[in-house]
Structures
1.
Amino acid sequence: MNLVDNSIQAVRGMNDLLPDVIELWQHVESAARDILHAYGYREIRVPLVEKTELFARSIGHVTDIVEKEMYSFEDRSGDSLTLRPEGTAGCVRAAIENGLLHNQVQRFWYAGPMFRHERPQKGRYRQFHQIGVEAFGMQGPDIDAELILMSCRLWEALGLRELTLEINSLGTPESRTRYRKVLIDYLTEYRDQLDADSLRRLEHNPLRVLDSKDPAMRDIINRAPNMFDYLDDGARAHFEELQSYLNEAQVSYVVNPRLVRGLDYYTHAVFEWTTDKLGAQSAICAGGRFDGLVEQLGGKPTPAAGFAIGMERLAELVSLVGLPDIDSAPHVYMVLPGSLAEHRGMRLAETLRSSGLRVLCNCGGGSMKSQMKRADKSAARFALILGDEECAQGKVTFKNLRISGPQELIDQSSVVEHIQKRLQ
Ligand code: HAM
């Protein structure tokens, strides 16, 4: 690193994605895009900044995200704005505002950066990226199952095995209220054994106590009343039918009654895909149904479900299982010693590109030796050398940079054909 004293560094937890990594990201994104389109999802792009109230009302006032993690600020007009911590709220706001939900079924996807002021560690960042999907107007559980099958197809396309799918049902708001009461009574009995975080949650958001990662709390949590026992018949039937879809499709899953999610808008089925290969930050994709959110944000009651994938975690996982051969190196490096060659060479390079070849032109001059060095470093397969002599004869010298062998003098008019033969 070449840091001088007055250099400015990136904000903690916000990372540069450098070209070597971007190739992997593009591979993942393009696989995701193909699959999302195959299931009829259409892209939506919404602003990175929304009114703070949008997130408070949707994610929930008493959640870690809203209480502790949002990048909120007052703009010059005095409005409280927030950098989006997730994509669902903005997507719902946009769908309502643009009248996209009136008696309509919609399937949207989005991708981009999200911001949460969490404690940075491997797999957990303050600016991170998600690919998310939201489906509106379908009661499920068929659409819930379709969402899960779609994520399965992405794992398969990326060569990922051994991911674990956990599912749970959070029921309806009514069944949750019933369960909440029972849970508060139970946890209050153990009040003196609860850690500080759980004590705080007990007051405001008791279900989140079930999500505690503190090992000392495990026993109390394991013996807590089971949410399933409080589901109403409709919620139970919905969850059972989702499981029967998954069984038919031979998707393995674990029912985890402690899976509660950190955002308040969920109802009925929720799910999370995890891996044991990334350490503590093991969730690579999570989502579920959020039937009440559209109405909560001012729209007509509309059933909805979706999920979001954490791109940093997914890309890391893909890199661990081994990358496919992503070849974005140039096919050809143009070595152009002399000003006549620079001009002719640029024209020839355009002809090569028009036939689909990736061509890197030597720019900025330099001796033949230094240009050949750059050609080697560029990872190109071939060099084309165009000196004064070649220019005068309408020829070009072809050199294979990967396999040693004699250089060949070829006609400029047949150079495309020559290269394409060597590429086969
Ligand atoms: P979430 O569980 O908060 O859900 O985030 C989804 C995924 O984003 C996580 O499983 C994880 O892979 C990634 N992620 C979250 N926070 C971070 C972070 N600080 N650094 C790196 N990756 C992170 C949602 O955001 C919901 N909006 C998902 C959804 C869409 N539910 C319905 N539709």
2.
Amino acid sequence: MILSIESSCDDSSLAITDIATGKLLFHRKISQEKEHAAYGGVVPELASRLHAVALPVLLESAKEYLPGLKAVAVTNRPGLGVTLLEGIAMAKTVAQLQHIPIIAVHHLKAHIYSLFIEKEVVMPLLVLLISGGHTQIIRVSSHEKMEVLATSIDDSVGESYDKCAKMMGLGYPGGPIIEKLAREGDEERFDLPVPLRNSPQLAFSLSGLKNAVRLLIEECRDSEGNLSHRDMCDIAAGFQKSVKLHLIQKSKKIFDKEKIADFAIVGGASANLYIRSAYEQLCKKYRKRMHVAPLEFCADNAAMVGRYAQEAYRKGEFADPLTIDIEPTKKLSANMEL
Ligand code: KG4
Ligand code: ZN
């Protein structure tokens, strides 16, 4: 069995995966959303203190599996340095006490493996990764070869939802809040821009749209500075429509060139049913099979870390338990390998 640990942002999570069968034997997560809501985003030091409290609680509840461990896997990049270190410290301790190897897991690769929890791997695969920190299209040729085809030049998808909610005073995380409001809204009422619409650039950008939303919010406020529920719903719907059109427009450029028959959306924002359904239509048009992870595995979790580690264990991809550290976050650009 492998113990896997996730602490790259605001979710503390532990899982136990059976190496031979891939069965998820244990999976628990403690989220910090409530604690960060007051700030409208994740506060790194608060997050790391909350991991320091939550991770041992989770380990205690997985105690019965510890004697049978063959390896411990931990997310070590990319993410918040101070929170990654909490997971790494626990991984090192368990590995040293049990004399077992450590597997260092790339967070974005783990999101890709969220598709394969208790399932067979499907590769080659084109992946749209939309999370709080990233917007990317990745060509996954194999476990070893994953290349970025398009990336974001500013705010990621999840981040733009979070900021939109924050500007309307609606709490954190913004994704589910905005999606819910948008369901009641009229997406045609406001004419928000579709980013890079007339640009041939194969990249994602959402900060211009965020600014347009900010101006619209100011325009809609009444003399006391309040926004009506109707306005909030219509702004959310208009914003979400622009995000969708932007993602689809740039994805089409890639679909026109890439012949890979399987496509997937992963990451926290892949839980968004409006975006999912737009991609279902696109995949139908391009005759691609679409894959998504179950909703419970879209946001950060240790089960996906364990699924990646199951593959890595078979390939002998081990890190040095004494020197394993966080890796500085590299700025991803097109044509780069993950
Ligand atoms: O993958 P994730 O849990 O953490 C990172 O790796 O960043 O993604 C979290 C992000 C947050 O920004 C959150 O607002 C967004 O995913 N998110 C959504 C939805 N649910 C979560 N964004 C849009 N629509 C949703 N339904
Ligand atoms: Zn993530």
